[in-house]
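Please predict the structure of the following assembly.
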Amino acid sequence: MDWKEKYKIRLKFETELKEKFPNLYSGLGFHWRDGGMLGGVEIGEGWYNIIRLLSEKLEYFINKLTEEERPRAVQVKEKFAGLRFYMSAKTKEMSEAIREAEDRSYKVCEYCGAPGYESDYSWWMKTLCEKCHEERKNDQAKMHTTRGETWKLKSKGKRLR
Ligand SMILES: [Zn+2]
């Protein structure tokens, strides 16, 4: 899949989030200086369902608060192979729901949603399934070969060349 296709899928997902969870994602699409979200929802499609479930809970909690008290999502991204979900403020029940979703992300392939594990290929940690791990390995190997670089790529203890 090329980047244009990926971008379209992401825009569609962000639109869906804004429509279904208008309070939680009221900052989505605005500049971060206005308290909005920096960069939008920066994760792979495999985790979209985790976000849908979490958003449902968070929107419900937010709706219980008065309008002035209502926090919103400020950043959704991947870091060290796990989901990170940041809010402008959060209650205890929101924190618990977020922690649950973040923990879950370490067991789900970020690319396709299949059961995943930590993929330690190269310098960028990811949570992926076996198939996506192999694809990513091949893609990166191609990229490195094209560039003529001599990275010592680590993949499950094996060196590529
Ligand atoms: Zn996968």
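The first helix runs from residue 3 to 20. The CA atoms of residues 12 and 82 lie 23 Å apart.
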